[in-house]
Amino acid sequence: MNNPLLELKEVSYKNKNNFTLNKVSLRINSGEKIALLGKSGAGKTTLISILNGTIRPNKGSVKLFNTEFDKLNLYQKSKISTIWQDLRLIEDLSAEQNVNCGLLGKQSILFAFKNLLNISSFNKAHQYMQVCNLKKSIFSKNIRKISGGQKQRVAIARSLIQESDILLADEPFNNLDPKLASNIKNLLLITKNKNKIKVPCTTLISLHRLDLLDGFNRIIGMKNGEILFDLEKTKLKKFHLNKIY
Asked: Closest Cα to residue 6, out of 201, 187, 159?
């Protein structure tokens, strides 16, 4: 069996007095499209935060490319991009500047200053914004002056511009209407697309909406910090969902 891209072994995480993850083991292989299901509080956000190295588990090991997370260099860590549920946009910057922030891990300090001063090139940012169905009229607007759905797509464009290998996304469709949600989901899951942009070949996306499960090939269900099922999409049955909802 090939080495997985990401691997958790017996990972537990305790927040104050409660375990938000309890002895979770997980292997994520190249090319998988994984939907992560569960109610609020099931542990999905904590799992994503551990997978991308934002928080460290109290127990267990986390490996990326068969290397312990603590031993990875910045270039290796940049192979993972994340779309956060709370978006984590910078309110003092414009929409296009926020998207450009996705490039900071691969650019020089000079680029960061130019972006901050609004004198950098936004050609690539605009390309990704258009792919996310954002209109030119909002490109230079301050992030405070655009709608929730537009902010959501700015965050998605910021993640995609990183051109990572692995995408982790925490409820990325929350502020989108059904048609937009379906379009963006297809964008995130289809590696080869007509827009000729690079999309991560491996994705793990947490969801509430079961109508968006088409296109995923693996489904993981969580409850109370534990994985209750992990199976191929074709094997998902109603009784599996009844376990977590």
From this structure: 201
